[in-house]
């Protein structure tokens, strides 16, 4: 049942003529912040970064020594040699790359031409990720919700059509640049949907791993500010996307994101909910086809640039509590998903105690679930874009449960199935991003 009391207000309507950007109005910028929708500084010239601007930028971003010391100690053990090069990327925000995800609900031809003329190229081509992207309606269905879905969907259509003819067909289009150049954010303009969203391209991987199909019922358990919810809506047209966020300020941000990118006609399909994600599994058990748990975590990039040593130390003190919350959220998600459905768990930290160890702890508790191998499906095909690392022996704090290791499986394939980690490296600065996919068998 759709819990009407959980809806967070009505989404405002933005539609009509799309904003026109010309190459003249486009400036080159680089960021003072890691997120989307941030304050930007113009380059003096198009193309290569301006030296003085780069120096000022670096000066503004002093790293937090207690956090760096902590990372050095932990990550050199967990990542070995990869940590030195990841560290150099994290300490040089000037090198960070940004992806430009186009919004299929707007006209993007002109933006595409501008991006291409500036040296951006399309990434995650269909040939790279053919099995991951929507290719028509879901082959499976949850009978309990089929009636509702049937009322939301048009009759079955050929696979190239969206279930709703008024919407352009699903198409995930993201552009990246080989250098750390960044498109300007689009300012909000009433009556106009935004044409693109800036993100760390590794953020798309949990969404690809979710493999959302048209007509499915999807829960984004930790949703604000909404970047992955938007990516889901580029990949497919679900019957329902429930975007949950308990923090009121972040929920407002989420609602604003959805309003700025999605047409009014999707309001009945994309809803905002305000629950504590740890309770979702009880209130809406066995309900969703797919659940994304993009968990609160020690965000390595932003923690490294904590405002002060005190803030950094305070964050580090709270770090030990995160795996407990993350495991609760993951268990709740596994309760909310229907038998046969999948949960993707993701974080933007390199920390194995928030990644592999959380997944392993929850798998030990939930015999009705099994991890799936993302190494073959994602890490190998996408290794030209990202540097991946898999779990290694002794990664976590929980002992291995032999029953979880298939008899015919090697130790390394077992570790691949716990999850994959994108480690930022020079020239491929995407990440950190951990993702794991777990299927509920019954
Ligand atoms: C990593 S962010 C999510 C980013 C988002 N998925 C995106 O792509 O834009 C984690 C979010 O989880 C939220 N959160 C924290 N505690 C939570 C809880 N108990 N249940 C659900 N969400 C929670 C935080 O407020 C935060 O907005």
Automatic annotation (TrEMBL):
Q: What does UniProt give as GO cellular component?
A: mitochondrial large ribosomal subunit
Sorted alphabetically, which Pfam families does this protein's record hold? Methyltr_RsmB-F
Lineage: superkingdom: Eukaryota
Q: Please list the residues that make up the active site.
A: 348 (nucleophile)
User: Keywords, A to Z?
Assistant: Methyltransferase, RNA-binding, S-adenosyl-L-methionine, Transferase
The protein's matches in InterPro entries, at most eight in alphabetical order, are given as: MeTrfase_RsmB-F_NOP2_cat, MeTrfase_RsmB-F_NOP2_dom, RCMT, SAM-dependent_MTases_sf
Instruction: Locate the residues binding S-adenosyl-L-methionine.
Output: 222-228, 245, 276, 294
Asked if the record carries the keyword Membrane, the reply is no
For whether the record's keyword set contains Ion transport, the answer is: no
Q: Where is the composition biased (Polar residues)?
A: 135-145, 154-163
Record-annotated SAM-dependent MTase RsmB/NOP-type domain positions: 123-441
Name any one GO molecular function.
RNA binding
Gene Ontology terms: biological process = rRNA methylation
Stretches for region Disordered: 135-168
Which PANTHER family does the record cross-reference, listed alphabetically? Answer: NCL1 YEAST -RELATED NOL1/NOP2/FMU SUN DOMAIN-CONTAINING, TRNA (CYTOSINE(34)-C(5))-METHYLTRANSFERASE, MITOCHONDRIAL
- Family of this protein: Belongs to the class I-like SAM-binding methyltransferase superfamily. RsmB/NOP family.
Q: Return the protein name.
A: SAM-dependent MTase RsmB/NOP-type domain-containing protein
Q: Which organism is it from?
A: Monopterus albus
